[in-house]
Amino acid sequence: MLEKRLLEAGQNHIARLLEDRVPFLSRERIEEDLTLVDFPLIQQLVNGNCLYEEPPKKEVAPAEVIPASFASSPGANTYRTRGEDLLRRGRVAALVVAGGQGSRLGIEAPKGVVKVSPVRDKSLFCLHAQKVLALSRNYGSTIPLFIMTSRINDAQSREFFAEHAYFGLDPDEVHFFVQGMLPSVTPEGKFLISREGGLFMNPDGHGGTFLALQKNGCLDIMHEKGIEEIFYFQVDNPLVKVCDPLFIGLHHESGARMSSKVVRKRGFEEKVGVIARVDGKTRVIEYSDMGDEIRYAADEGGAMLHWAGSIAIHVIRRDFVETLTRGDLRLSFHKALKTIPTLDEKGNPAEEKGIKFETFIFDALPLADTSITLEVLREEEFAPVKNMTGEDSLESSRSMQSDLYRSWLEELGVRLKPTTLVEISPLLALDRQEVHARMAGLPREIETDLYLPGLDEEP
Question: In 3-state terms, what secondary structure has residue 183?
Fold first, then answer.
């Protein structure tokens, strides 16, 4: 009986409302929500266990970073070849975290459906899927795509892929799995009611990727396919170089368990976490956790010391994820006090201080005995879409995409008007080398917006 389960869990206030048959509560929603609740875990979190504790920073040093210039050096070829070999042998999977909604971008739909490309208005999902398809064709292998959705956007995300024929990918090689959820609670551990009549649930954070992979059987699928490395990225970055062979090769050859890409921060006060060495271990220091002594640390010449901004792109060994999800080993939870939109005991809209618990994927970095950090150029690999305008916006991302593609053509001697937008399909070329190899015969001067399609796309 539902009421009995709630009473046993100490949630008397909800049990009583259900017994009174108040119209603003949905038995079906409450029952469905409770199936997602790990009661022992919630009790531990409320009691202050399993929570992240900021370790004392006895020694904070800049991250040991492989510079972006390494990519064009002769020494990079060995690692790039190793990465290409892993891709060719089907040892790499792509994993995109796509649980968010596009509310701040003007749509009530999964963020992955937001149209972001500068000329053709391709969606984020389309761009990422086409990159995976292009890689599979280039290396004559199958690169499975794992997509972590959320409870609120899973059905829509699946429908979007189906409506677009999976963007050319084999549907059997596209694996959707749902992120875990946790109830938000009062400081006393009481569940909060959502305005839809269920429990107020929140995603368990991108650190929940590991447990979601295990619970949804995705790690088993990877094991059966012989996957060794997982290329992890977030859906909102259309410039991500999916399954970058150089990054994969560097990570694999070093014996790393989890590795990261970084960009150089714009300035001391850019609100991004930085990768650093803390007491000898690689980890991310969140912007909100930085004291001024770290944020404004500079070398003798005044240059920023902690410049390695984290961009949420990682390569992670599959067996490392298996270790993290085995038994009682899990990432610590971060606790945040938020104002929660809820209902009072009469069903009226109210706001109440509540606690959200979530995990962060970068908290796994100190658990990896070996990790590499590779710098990449922001203008080539990081143009996140978080807002409509301003920094890290739909507007800035489209501009950065076009600027990158323009630079590839200008290197071939093509003259472009300053206002000309350019878009190059991933199915034609994934990087400047492929453009240079495949684009002989372009006109020397282009004045109108230009889209260069793949061979099986309409021009």
Answer: strand
Residue 34 lies in a domain: no
Report the pLDDT value the prediction gives residue 443, as an integer from 0 to 100: 82
CA distances from 124 to 114, 240, 288 (A): 6, 11, 29
Instruction: Report d(CA 246, CA 320) in Å as an integer.
Output: 20
Q: Is position 24 within any domain?
A: no
Q: Cα separations (Å) of 299 from 62, 85, 138?
A: 11, 40, 44
Instruction: Give the pLDDT confidence score for residue 378 in this predicted structure.
Output: 97
> What digits encode the pLDDT tens for the residues 358-383?
999 999 999 999 999 999 999 999 99
In the prediction, which pLDDT does 441 show?
A: 72
312 located within any domain: yes
CATH number at residue 332: 3.90.550.10
List the structure tokens of 278.
Answer: 């803390």
Domain membership of residue 11 (yes or no) is no
Helix (H, G, I), strand (E, B) or coil at 451: strand
Do the Cβ atoms of 426 and 127 come closer than 8 Å? yes
The whole domain housing 368 covers 55-385
Looking at the whole model, is its pTM more than 0.90?
yes
Residue type, 267: G
Structure tokens at 409: 């053509």
* Rounded Cα gap, residues 232 and 205, in angstroms: 14
Ramachandran category for residue 409: left, alpha or beta (phi over 0 → left; psi -120 to 50 → alpha): alpha
Pairing of strands 258-264, 373-375: parallel
DSSP notation for 6-24: HHHTT-HHHHHHHHTT-TT
- CA–CA distance, 373 with 259 (Å, rounded to integer): 6
Segment 314-338, tens digit of pLDDT: 999 999 999 999 876 678 898 889 9
Domain count, the chain: 1
DSSP for 378-434? HHHH-----BSSSTTBHHHHHHHHHHHHHHHHHTTT-EE-TT--EEE-TTT-SSHHH
Q: What is the phi/psi pair of residue 450, to 5°?
A: -130, 130
